[in-house]
């Protein structure tokens, strides 16, 4: 069966795609939904001077504002109805994952299967509304205080303006949350990931054009730009290599006598990814580090002197910033891995189903073995994330390379592309299997 699947996967081509009607419909639905999302990133919020806003954001593009603007595909800098994008939903999802690990009732819900998962998803949506409302109010207040050349960004500040901004941003985020769920159910790939992916990819041509323009004006050497493009290709290759890497732990199931038949005795494997935490560690680390610097920059020097000193030491590319960034990536890699994978629960599930790791006793010993293997894998995964994210970070700070060539953006783009292509391939394989089954039935009737 495995060899047949591999052979079918190798024979996947555009001809097979043309015959897979359901897959084509899914792809068209996904593209249509992403087009709707991109159109929404150009619908501005009411009552804001776009020119003043552009001047202010141009000054803040190296901070957390620039990073989140990358995730929103420019919707934040244009201050559109999708300015917050899907980020509040991702934040609430991560918070709920953390809560299920420490809150007994939520942990029990997680173990109840489909019904428990629906309840947790509902709580996630409620938390998304709360987070979006708080962030929307903060944005409204921040917009009222923005000025450029003595011109205010908001023409008529006040309670009505704040209420309008909060309602619009909450509605935009909830619409994107619904759109992402529709893509997941009726399209191809994970809808939430594809929304972030499309935002990053949409601005890649502009980022490349700006980089080439810097080379044309002499701000960046030509050899450096060539080296940057080669490095980007190398980073993509490394990401693909490490994201596909996994440790397969052999799991054996004993033979069982059921009447006159002998069942069981087969062996399987438990795949452990090298980078279980995914893109969460660099995103969290960047957000936490860039937050104080951005707040200090918004204060425009009106705060105490120590704030300016902190901003100088935490500037991008500074030794303290790089050291803290490295430490946080490693910390969140281990922390999030511990949240999403529980060796004790996995070992207990294996024991209940009669599975065991050869040479390891079921139960506590298996849990300790899985924890030891996972810790070693996470060490390598954290080192891989650190290298991928730190090297572009130095280039961004020293040579003003756009965010879109950073490790985090490339990591998101490559992983989402790999996951989507894997789903397309699985649909094609299923379609070819269905074709083989129909042919065999026709031959049987003859």
Explained architecture:
The chain has 446 residues and is mainly alpha-helical. It has two domains: 28-202, SecY subunit domain (Preprotein translocase SecY subunit); 204-446, SecY subunit domain (Preprotein translocase SecY subunit, Orthogonal Bundle). Helix content is 73%, strand content 6%. It has 19 helices and six strands. A two-stranded antiparallel sheet has the order 1-2. A hairpin with a 2-residue loop joins strand 4 and strand 5. Helix 8 packs across helix 9, helix 9 runs antiparallel to helix 10 and helix 17 packs antiparallel against helix 18 (364-399). The longest helix is centred in the C-terminal third of the chain and has 39 residues, at 407-445. The chain is globular. The two termini are 26 Å apart. 29% of the residues are buried. The model is unreliable at 1-12 (pLDDT under 50).
